């Protein structure tokens, strides 16, 4: 697939996320009718891996509504969120203002982040939980991240496991308790096209741009893209917990997240890399 075709599909995704934003703002899933609780979106191990953030420059790529970005600001970071959806960035700015959080939001495609941020460099770049699947070219992404990080800076990817993506992020209509593989685990098979009036949240139907495209990326592809640009992988975690109950039989854990009673399979991973 050519770069022009990639750009066309990413513009379709941008329109789709613009259309999703009012749905997500109205959903119980995000709970934005109350004071935002950004901590709920983080596994405890994330804070251990990220370390002290006070006084550090932190960039959250593909931040959508900025719910996690607020958590970085509350921990003393100079936090910046970047997203390609104009509607998301506007909503995130309003959410942060109401929460009293000092966050800067920038609208840009992740591949244009260096130029959009005027060459600014960061101590930490954070991304994940449903972000990488919207990027067709991980080598280009890794090159961008490398240019955004200061020497000694760290990238932290906390992303849905490729196995979960293969099983599907939400139940299919009439789905039973079985774990059924629906998509590739590995990349290279081209984009998965979705035309859906409802997203992963509750809330009203999406109006207008309902088409979206996702690309599968195995963990090996992520690691190889990062090492190719000179980043060193410091830690890789896999966990069987999710911040929402993907399957009805999932049980609540001490962390407040959810896991399957059996089988124990990886649903999320955390990858820490350093420049």
Automatic annotation (TrEMBL):
Leader peptide range in chain numbering: none
Keyword Methyltransferase belongs to the record: yes
Keywords for the protein's UniProt record, in alphabetical order: Methyltransferase, Transferase
Protein name as it appears in the record: Methyltransferase
Molecular function per GO: methyltransferase activity
Limits of the Methyltransferase type domain: 59-155
Keyword Transferase among record annotations: yes
Upper classification of the organism: Bacteria, Bacillati, Actinomycetota, Actinomycetes, Kitasatosporales
Cited SUPFAM superfamilies: S-adenosyl-L-methionine-dependent methyltransferases
GO biological process: methylation
